[in-house]
Amino acid sequence: MNIKEKCRVGVSGLAVMLIMSVVSQAASTEKLTVVNQGGAPGDAQRKAVFEPFTAKTGIGIVADTYNQELAKIRAQIETGNLIWDAASVHSLNESIGCDEGLLEPIDWSKLLPEADFKAVGGFGKCGAPYLVSPGGLVYDAERFSGNEAPKSWKDFWNIEKWPGKRGLPYQPDQVLEIALISDGVAPKDVPEVLAKPGGVDRAFAQLEKIKPHIVWWKTGDESMQLLLTKEIAMGYGWQGRVNVANRSNKRNLRIVWEAGYTSAVIYMAVMKGSPRKQEAIELIKYTLAAEPQAHYAELMGYPPANERSFALLSEENRASQPTKFLDRGMMQAGDLYIDFWRDNGDSIRQRFSTFAAR
Fold first, then answer.
1. Total-model pTM
2. What does the alpha-carbon distance between residue 29 and residue 87 come to, in Å, rounded to a whole number?
3. Which of 21, 100, 104, 110 is the most core-located residue (most Cβ within 10 A)?
């Protein structure tokens, strides 16, 4: 090989290296923007999903936060000014967002094993379930123990026997359901009772009984802080938040599963018109895979949405799940529940905000 030929080979080889470098750089700088509710669950999602996904694919993840305000998704679609590529949405927002054309309709059964998600209600028309979030009555075992500990939502309502403030989320869904359970409605019957004439009035009447003692919280972090600082005697809290609070603060907050609890299914969905739709789909597929689901569950303590993940959980994690009290859970899903909140949600939220403010 003469000098000219060697030079041509050298230049050619250098060109290939440069091209590969540019391609590699493009992959590493490509970013998806995903919105979730932040806090401890957001940190867990970053560790269990986003970071390993980026390491595997070279696609970076930018995380934003919101409090399930569907209006923020709607505004981006209507103005064409997309900030997010994928969003974490609860069952009601998944249903409304899909019907309004705010989220991409995707047949997830062609991309993921449908049987693995049957236990949590399967796929939505747009979203795929990645998280189950049970929430129930929480108290500090350092404050109450043995026979002094609350055992039901009726106890939660009993201010005379258990004095002190009560922490409840500033949102009518979950709160109205808990109010009905405290009034003797079986958790499985709550959606039907709530949807019947007089059901909403019954729930508000029950809340009225303890209204002077309620501290309304707006974030999961706040719900735990109120308990940790003893500003409230007991409250409603989500399982994952309780687990993280105990682990981080060496405390003994306990959930009374037998009292009855609500259980929300959270979905991941792709924003309508995202220019990174395929990358977002790949992220969601990765999120729902058995190992990332198990990793996330270990970090947060939530039960995984993927049934195959349970075999990968630690004994401690499995023991903390409310599997013995499945009959005491009320799933915030199903046609009756979704249709009720779709038809009545706006008026109930307005009534609730007026009720909480006075």
1. 0.80
2. 21
3. 104
Give per-residue pLDDT as tens, 62-106: 999 998 999 999 999 999 999 999 999 999 999 999 999 999 999
Query: Residue 205 in contact with residue 251, Cβ under 8 Å?
Result: no
CA dihedral 160, 162, 165, 168 (to 10 degrees): -110
Angle made by CA atoms 342, 347, 349, in degrees to the nearest 5: 85
CB 199 within 8 A of CB 193: yes
**The three-state (H, E, C) secondary structure of 265-290, written as one string:** EEEEEEECCCCCHHHHHHHHHHHHCH
pLDDT digits (tens, 9 = 90+) for 249-274: 999 999 999 999 999 999 999 999 99
Give the torsion sign (CA, 156, 157, 160, 161).
Answer: negative
What one-character DSSP code corresponds to residue 152? S
Range 110-149 burial, b when 16+ CB lie within 10 A, else e? eebeeebbeebbbbbebbbbbbbbbbbbbbbeebbeeeeb
Position 193 in a domain: yes
User: What is the rounded CA–CA span in Å between residue 328 and residue 105?
Assistant: 33
In this structure, are 23 and 75 located in the same domain? yes
Dist. CA 288–CA 282, nearest whole Å: 10
Identify whether the C-beta of residue 35 lies closer than 8 Å to the C-beta of residue 64.
yes
